Amino acid sequence: MQLATRRVGSGPTLICHPGGPGFSAAELADVGGLGATRELVLVDPRGTGASPAPTDGGAYTTDDYVADLEELRETLARETLDLLGFSHGGIVAMAYAAAHPRRVGKLVLASTIAAVTEETTAEMERVKAEKADEPWYAGAFAALEQEERGDYDDFTAMWTAMAPMYFHRWDERYRGWLTASVEGSSAAPLRVFNAQPFDLRADLAQIEAETLVITGADDFICGPAAATAIAAGIRGAETVILERAGHMTFVEQPDAFRQAVEAFLAR
Asked: CATH says 4-266 is which class?
């Protein structure tokens, strides 16, 4: 499938895949300002933004996303890609780097997870409990339960309610990003993903790319426990944990995120 992309900045090229699944490149904004030193190719995954939806409504498997990235590489006429995957985009990036190990130069896995484990579940419950006194908590908790039930009828309202849970500390200055993040979004990929258990841990040893695993200390869904498990499976992987950051590291701590990623890519 031919993916739509948007280019930001100038310099060495970095392919950036957003999360969800179901979010377009709008979710990534300017990826913490990395466009100051990189040409960012911001991807609209299948069924989001300007990229077409598959003719088969259920064709949102990890293999489908991997095939789309390989087609994008061929379209760009590049032997190798430097690749940043955020959240679900990190799952895609790991799967792509494992399936095509010689096609990835450097790999940035931002706020992502290879498998749901006892450790990641315990971390999620702990971080959620720490936020129980926040004024937005009841609405966010209800929205998370709505997602668990598979009720995606109003995806925008659901995401708007739960989004504060994805930050170390929610602040209204993030409202503009939140509103923009749903541009071109779709609930269809998320519905498929949540119905299919995943576990990439056995594939991580196939990754040959230099790898940076970066996440927020207070990421309730893809936090330090998830990062540790990923780094343990990829030879030589580096881990950076950003303090005072939740899942949306590049929004909440853009300077720290940009500096850590650029330092890794520039070596």
From this structure: alpha beta
